[in-house]
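Bug report (template v2)

What were you trying to do?
Predict the complex of my protein with xanthosine-5'-monophosphate.

What happened?
Run completed; filing so the output is reviewed.

Input:
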Amino acid sequence: MGGLDRIVILDFGSQTTALIGRRIRELGIYAEILPGDATLSDEDLAGVHGIILSGSPQSVYDGGAQVDQRIYQCGLPLLGICYGLQRMTVDLGGRVEALAKREAGGIEVTIGLKSPSILKKPNWDAMNFFSGFLLRDDLSLWNIFTGNKCISSFNAWMSHGDTLVELAPGFVEAGSSANGYPAIVYHREKPWFGLQFHPEVSHCELGNAILASFVTGVCRCPAVWNMKDYLDKTVAALQTAAADKTILLLISGGVDSTVAAALLLRALPPEQLHLMYLDTGLMRKDETIEVRQILKSLGARHIHIVHCADEFFAALAGLTAPEEKRTAIGDLFIRIQEREVEKLNLPGDYLLVQGTLYTDLIESGKGVGKKARLIKSHHNVGSPLVEAKRAVGKILEPLDKLYKDEVRALGRLLGIDEAVVGRHPFPGPGLAVRILGEVTAEKCATLREADALFISELKARQNPLTGKCLYDEIWQAFAVLLPLRSVGVAGDERRYGWVLALRAVTSTDGMTADVYPFNAKDIIEISTLITNTVQEIGRITFDISSKPPATIEWE
Ligand code: XMP
């Protein structure tokens, strides 16, 4: 990344590290995430305007990850978040201990100095930091520096089992939690700050303003990150990395691999490029036909569509546990891919390209810091073929620094049709993770029909309040077939049909999600249409869980 104006985030494994980067990029500032224990050379720090230390599932006194001590000597502004603050505190001579009871969820933070502190000289960094998120006419700013009675508080988002019991020398407490623990600290003379809460989480009041205050007010990092620049740089990088090489791109049919294909076709002659797509039988309705059309319209020449549904259904027979199903699909996917790639007779040094997103890497536990805990295995991230190619440096993942909506923006810049760019995400293992329990071809056919009806209705309906099409307002919608039958009636007959769940969420990047608040009329009409049309479905329920604690997919 040498030289690019940016903020570095040291990742100690928090599930929300990616969100910190996301928030900063929304400000037009590039954020680079590095492993928390990375050694930082002068070259690594060229262009860096500030360093953020992330949270972690570990404790500082419990083998928690160390940090390169250079960060305390390099003169750059530092912001410790949760574990990051505790790491700084211990490294700089303070103390951290376990709490009797965790602080978790929304907790009020009151701003103001705990004990009066008279500053010998003005601390402009602290002034810039606090004035960025406290209103000027709010006396709190004054209180921070005078220690007068504080008047300002906000609802912060916390998740920690340890607390600071002694601040490191030079630090001042400028905010505390409703339970009386330090929540905001800053250094009297250095541009160093610490938050015990998570400003990156959307439920944290003032969170965005606090992060913005740090990166712009304290770090003064220029906002130079934009998609056009990214496109130009990535095209140039692909031309250098892939000049004259044969390239294989694994296409899933989703937005990501389609954008990756468009990117490659922008950078390189189509003869160089082989696109392989496996029709696993677990795809959405008409997906394979559409994929071929889109790739052709992008100028692709070598499109290899492999029909292998029977093999997938055979591999899934009898499997009911989610991770077993994912593993079986992932393994077979790779075996078939290897077999089919072999048939293509590509040169041994061909490059493998994948449309892996940043969030795929984080959620599969392959986050750049490699500390995040596994939530679900994503089969397109850790397969042996991919890992073998990665080990010999023959893999390119041109989207691996991007979030979903950034990929969409890139797709639009590349001229991809809005219907493709705006398409809801679809998981690699396809309908298999939306059929709870055992997957069969019949269940897939039932779910495919129900899902297609749901989606076409969302495309046809508008929200009267916003005038927007429901499909575009929703980030991801789909149907899930439950392993349950329930009694119903059709005419004079009793029916024993499957139970279907409908899911529709709003989100910006899939890391967190809220339930889409349907008008009752829409969801009832859609549900009636599905039960009237798809005979096998007897009953429909609507999933009202947000992420967290639920995930978006059911498996
Ligand atoms: P969850 O269910 O983890 O999903 O909240 C977050 C986003 O990721 C998608 N997803 C996957 N995408 N391979 C993928 O390419 C997978 O194995 C996979 N699992 C979940 C999910 O659809 C949602 O958009």
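What did the reviewer find?
The domain at 227-421 is CATH 3.40.50.620 (Rossmann fold). DSSP finds 18 helices and 18 strands in the chain.
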